Amino acid sequence: MKMNEILFCLLAVLNVCSVWAQPKTLKFGKNGDFKIVQFTDVHYIYNDPRSDVSIERINQVLDIEKPDLVLFTGDVIYGKPAEEGMRTVLNLVSKRKIPFAVTFFNH
Q1: Looking at 8-12, 24-28, 75-79, 103-107, which range is the least confident one?
Q2: What percent of the chain has pLDDT over 70?
Q3: Which terminus of the chain is more solvent-facing, meaning fewer CB atoms within 10 Å of its CB: N or C?
Q4: What is the value of pTM for the model shown?
Q5: Dist. CA 47–CA 51, nearest whole Å
């Protein structure tokens, strides 16, 4: 698969996932705070037991911090199948109905 095909697939996945997770507007908490959590270089590999710790840590941070927005920056997934890997990671926030954004590639 060529790089532009991979990028197209990832963008399609993100569009589908963002429909599930994104509220219409971002909102400040009752105390006026707005908490952002960033995950970078997750390097998640779909169906690879070595990646279980990544999922555990993301869930742990989301449960403890209860962010208003989650940012995934660079190298979220690593390996094939890319779509399933990206869906797995993004579903961690979308099932909680937390707004999120993703940047692609390493930088």
Answers
A1: 8-12
A2: 75
A3: C
A4: 0.70
A5: 8
Report d(CA 38, CA 93) in Å as an integer.
12
CB atoms within 10 A of CB 73: 17
Interatomic CA distance for residues 93 and 76, integer angstroms: 14
CA dihedral 69, 100, 72, 76 (to 10 degrees): 150
Query: What gap in Å lies between CA 86 and CA 77, rounded to an integer?
Result: 6
What tokens were used for 84? 């399933």
**Position with higher pLDDT, 100 vs 8:** 100
**What is the spatial distance between Cα 102 and Cα 7, in angstroms, rounded to a whole number?**
13
Average pLDDT, the chain: 78
Q: Exposed (0-12), middle (13-18) or buried (19+): which is 45, by Cβ within 10 Å?
A: middle
